[in-house]
């Protein structure tokens, strides 16, 4: 009986401690609008804790990254050709060409195709349909800073990428 | 997998020791209620349901092997004045609790405290499952509406430790139990 009581006491301590010291915190990182104007054109965003209060406030107390998703609206301004986009992540911010990004970056989002003259809204839940290398993304997010690169692919690229956001869930002490 | 085997081993040991102790009562029951995430901004309230058995080892001590599914409501994020949602997923859990208190299955009200361990898996669309050993502790009231039938109301806290952090839930469930008197005791 004493052992049972000890076990239950331990479980109670664990539960109480867990309740007090950590929680899942949702962080939305909004990124500026960008445009891609030619085939293999590349744009870059910095994703940094320094621009987001909740992320920066809890950064030293993060236990792990729970989840990372995206939202964005991609508009194909070309009325005759479809456009395809790819997104990569890297810790580097000095890539000079799409080739360098593809060679050294990690593919993040692919399969994003927008018909001529149309827009594609990538919602939070839908972003996982395009996402790959999730573990690498979580590792980068854990460091507090990384770079996202967009590459336009198509005959005559003219796309706007608007309302871009990274939705991050961190498990951290309050 | 090792954790799963450990939990299965513990359940087997407890069941084996229970059968050697001239068990007096066995009950089976189902329960359903609310799953309330605690300090989890990324999910909302969901449902919890499952079933359990209870083996009385002594008049006021029993063990409860149990199985539960607890869903989360969709998470919501405000982005550029729009609300986007994300599947919350569900936790599938099985384990064993130890129950102290009124567990006789007689008519009338009784109160109990229950706590235990389990193996819990949080499955969510598009990302890897999280499977960990979980801990729970709760209190409840059971009311015997007939000689072999009782209803119960239970509130419990469940913690799933993971990577130096944890996922936490509060659960409020109602249930129905049926008792089999196996003889040899009260």
Can you offer a commentary on this structure?
The complex is a heterodimer of chains A (174) and B (186). Chain A is α+β, with helices and mostly antiparallel strands and 174 residues long. Chain A has one domain (23-172): Jelly Rolls (Sandwich), CATH 2.60.120. In chain A, 27% of the residues lie in helices and 45% in strands. Chain A has 5 helices and 9 strands; from the N terminus they run H-E-E-E-H-E-E-H-E-E-H-H-E-E. Chain A has helices spanning 2-21, 53-58, 98-104, 127-130, 134-143, and strands at residues 23-31, 34-36, 42-48, 62-76, 83-90, 106-114, 119-122, 145-153, 159-172. Chain A is elongated and about 75 Å long. The two termini of chain A are 36 Å apart. The relative contact order of chain A is 0.33. The model of chain A has no long low-confidence stretch (mean pLDDT 89). With 186 residues, chain B is mainly beta. Chain B has one domain (2-75, 86-181): Porin. Chain B is built from 1 helix and 10 strands, in the order H-E-E-E-E-E-E-E-E-E-E. Chain B has one helix spanning 2-19; strands spanning 25-38, 46-58, 61-71, 75-79, 82-86, 90-101, 108-124, 127-146, 149-162, 165-181. An 8-stranded antiparallel barrel of chain B has the order 1-2-3-6-7-8-9-10. In chain B, a hairpin with a 6-residue loop joins strand 6 and strand 7 (108-124). Chain B is elongated. Chain B starts with a helix and ends in a 5-residue tail after the last strand. The interface between A and B is large, with 37 and 39 residues.
């Amino acid at each position: 009986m004493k052992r049972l009581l000890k076990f239950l006491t331990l479980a109670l301590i664990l539960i109480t401690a867990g309740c007090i010291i950590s929680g899942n915190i949702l962080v939305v990182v909004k990124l500026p609008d960008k445009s891609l104007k030619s085939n293999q054109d590349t744009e870059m965003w910095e994703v940094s804790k320094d621009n987001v209060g909740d992320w920066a406030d809890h950064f030293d107390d993060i236990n792990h990254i729970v989840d990372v998703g995206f939202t964005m609206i991609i508009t194909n301004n070309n009325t005759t050709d479809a456009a395809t986009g790819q997104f990569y992540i890297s810790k580097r911010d000095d890539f000079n060409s799409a080739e360098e990004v593809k060679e050294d970056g990690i593919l993040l989002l692919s399969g994003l195709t927008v018909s001529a003259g149309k827009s594609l809204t990538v919602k939070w839940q839908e972003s996982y349909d395009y996402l790959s290398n999730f573990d690498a993304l979580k590792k980068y997010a854990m460091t507090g800073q990384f770079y996202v690169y967009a590459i336009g692919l198509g005959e005559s690229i003219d796309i706007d990428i608007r309302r871009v956001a990274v939705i991050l869930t961190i498990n951290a002490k309050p | 997998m090792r954790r799963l085997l450990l939990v299965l081993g513990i359940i087997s040991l407890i069941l084996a020791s229970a059968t050697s102790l001239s068990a007096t009562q066995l009950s089976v029951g189902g329960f359903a209620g609310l799953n309330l995430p605690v300090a989890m901004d990324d999910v909302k309230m969901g449902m919890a349901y499952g079933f359990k058995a209870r083996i009385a080892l002594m008049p006021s001590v029993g063990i409860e092997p149990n199985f539960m599914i607890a869903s989360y409501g969709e998470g919501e994020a405000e982005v550029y004045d729009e609300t986007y949602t994300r599947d919350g997923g569900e936790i599938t859990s099985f384990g064993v609790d130890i129950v102290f208190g009124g567990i006789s299955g007689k008519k009338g009200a009784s109160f109990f405290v229950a706590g235990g361990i389990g193996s819990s898996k949080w499955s969510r669309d598009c990302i890897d499952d999280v499977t960990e050993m979980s801990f729970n502790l709760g209190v409840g009231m059971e009311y015997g509406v007939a000689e072999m039938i009782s209803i119960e109301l239970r509130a419990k806290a469940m913690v799933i430790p993971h990577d130096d952090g944890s996922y936490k839930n509060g659960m409020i469930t109602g249930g129905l139990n049926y008792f089999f008197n196996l003889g040899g005791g009260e």
